[in-house]
Amino acid sequence: MVEGPKKGGINGFRMQLLALSLVLVTGLAQDVEESMTTSEVISNWGYPVETYDIITTDGYILNMLRIPHGQASTNNSSCHRPPLLMLHGLMGDASEFVINPPESSPGMILADAGFDIFMLNVRGTYYSQRHVNLTKDDREYWKFSTDDIVKYDLPAAIDKSLELNGAKALYIVGHSQGTLISFMLLADLPEYNRKVRAMFELAPVGNIRYIRVFGRFLYRIVVSVKGILDFYKVHLGAHEFGLHSPRLLGGAARFVCGPLFNYEASYSFFFVLAPSVKFVFMSMFQLCRDIIFIGAGPPSRTFNFSRVPLYLSNFFVSTSTWNILQYGQTLLHNAVYHFDHSPTENLRRYGQIAAPPYNYSNIDTDVYLFWSRNDWTTTPYEIEKWIIPHMRPVVIKNTFEIPEYNHLDFVLATDCREKVFSKIIAVVREKELDACLL
Ligand SMILES: *[C@@H]1O[C@H](CO)[C@@H](O)[C@H](O)[C@H]1NC(C)=O
Ligand SMILES: *[C@@H]1O[C@H](CO)[C@@H](O)[C@H](O)[C@H]1NC(C)=O
Ligand SMILES: *[C@@H]1O[C@H](CO)[C@@H](O)[C@H](O)[C@H]1NC(C)=O
Ligand SMILES: *[C@@H]1O[C@H](CO)[C@@H](O)[C@H](O)[C@H]1NC(C)=O
Ligand SMILES: *[C@@H]1O[C@H](CO)[C@@H](O)[C@H](O)[C@H]1NC(C)=O
Question: Any stretches that span the bilayer, and where are they (predicted)?
């Protein structure tokens, strides 16, 4: 057997060196939040936070955070706090729900509204890279696909949340990959329909077929190198995809784009001297914006550009290459299937040579979809032509179009409380008359 590259390889030492020089260049201007853990960020804003290690039945140790109540919580024995599980997107983690000040962070908005908040970090992400028998440097650790997140991580997180809260069923708020895995869960393990009272799906992922611009380009790559990918999957196993280097990513964003986001303020002196300088800065600003949003779509007017370094330092969180490959397979199949291993492995796992599809008709809980025409990743076509037709019509209780939002604005835009979460709170208030919801 060929040994894999040593610990981290290039993403180890050289990355740190690069990060260090970038940090020096940008004048050590790191935002304090960039160096905090997610639970430190939550308590820094004055919220209670609890941390749990959940062990899945296949031995992965997952980190789950809980915000048991909001800042101004009344201790009222005549009403209860409904449990709500938040599921993050691909290449992100639970930090995406608490990355803004409390009035625009989904996790804190919902805790203040009266929910008992649980935020899972799925396997492979930085805070969940542990296993009872393996380390993250073992190739075996990374041999998981989206199926395994669905089959092991979600049941463990749901059961633990219900145990801690005491309720019989909870609510799910999913964003991007979080929506995909929650659909897959209820399709594959229908007994969990009873444990989920409703799902609020932000930027819901279906078959990813209608992805635009950058995504289309990736699609063409996937199609043209399918043979290589199949060889990789069967003969080379799985690897870590992503990195944890807030200093590098945040530093790079600050160094390359940071001053440009405020170019009017930073460079106005030069603009007076030479108007053409302004044109150069405007073009560079456009380029930065375009690179950042090439996958997600144009940002809404309430996107906070000053926080881009912080957002980027929490992005590109690791997952397994097999999870990414399963997205590629979904694109090629034009439908959500189990991970397609080699025919022999499929036979062993599924009892048949071809990987079986997920049956979305099994979804039997209330579903609320939040979508936008500006979302280039999960476009309106995806929702109209795939998600809605694949579910039984009776489960889709409502759809909300959020004008102007791109794929990330659902959790990052500073007006997400008004545009998204007030609607969720209103729906739950009607379902649970005895809940303490503000
Ligand atoms: C961990 O290792 C022990 C001892 O070899 C074994 O019994 C157990 O099944 C392993 N657990 C998992 C989840 O692989
Ligand atoms: C509510 O009050 C009970 C009993 O007085 C106490 O045990 C519990 O910790 C309080 N909870 C909160 C959230 O303050
Ligand atoms: C406790 O909750 C009940 C039901 O929601 C409400 O009527 C009451 O005013 C609350 N009491 C306090 C002290 O907040
Ligand atoms: C935007 O980000 C800056 C820098 O982090 C912060 O000071 C400000 O409060 C944010 N604005 C809003 C509306 O959240
Ligand atoms: C999907 O599930 C529904 C009921 O949940 C069943 O009627 C249907 O036959 C299933 N479809 C397939 C292709 O298995």
Answer: none
